[in-house]
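Severity: low
Component: inverse-folding endpoint
Summary: output formatting inconsistent between runs
Steps to reproduce: submit the following structure tokens with default settings.
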């Protein structure tokens, strides 16, 4: 996909490979490709530091997934500003310490390119990708009795299935 194509809306299809993302680094880490995560399930969190549900529930949930699942589940964050707020890099860098983030995260190119291309409903938006790189689940929200509960169950099912012979 060309870098200037920002309106190729919702390229994500359940059961199909996760399309490439368009991300910029926040720290000195290079931006990995989608293929880098093949071999283990991947949880993608599209979030924003200006989103109360993200900082209050989604980031802690993603941190819990890292802590509880260790090496069996990869987690990647995509900081998106679909509302167009240009946050200073300092805020993006300090977020790691301020919110105890335990997973790598990158910023969305042009504020919202990946957000748009992945058909996100807002922030937080979650994508669950299997070990072969196929999207298994996509859900918007951080309600612990809805989105996070459903996501938690889907992750547990996926990890249990991966242990079966």
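Observed output (run 2 of 3):
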């Amino acid at each position: 996909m060309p870098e200037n194509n920002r309106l190729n809306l919702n390229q994500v299809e359940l059961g199909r490979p996760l399309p490439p993302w368009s991300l910029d680094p926040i720290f000195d880490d290079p931006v990995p490709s989608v293929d880098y995560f093949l071999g283990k399930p991947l949880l993608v969190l599209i979030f924003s530091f200006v989103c109360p549900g993200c900082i209050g529930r989604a980031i802690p949930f993603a941190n819990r997934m890292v802590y509880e699942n260790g090496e069996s589940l990869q987690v990647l964050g995509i900081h998106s500003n679909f509302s167009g707020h240009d946050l200073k890099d300092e805020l993006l860098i300090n977020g790691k310490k301020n919110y105890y983030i335990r997973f790598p995260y990158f910023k969305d190119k042009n504020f919202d390119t990946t957000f748009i291309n992945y058909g996100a409903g807002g922030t937080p938006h979650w994508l669950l990708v299997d070990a072969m790189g196929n999207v298994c689940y996509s859900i918007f929200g951080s309600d612990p009795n809805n989105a996070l509960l459903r996501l938690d169950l889907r992750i547990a099912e996926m990890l249990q299935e991966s242990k079966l012979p």
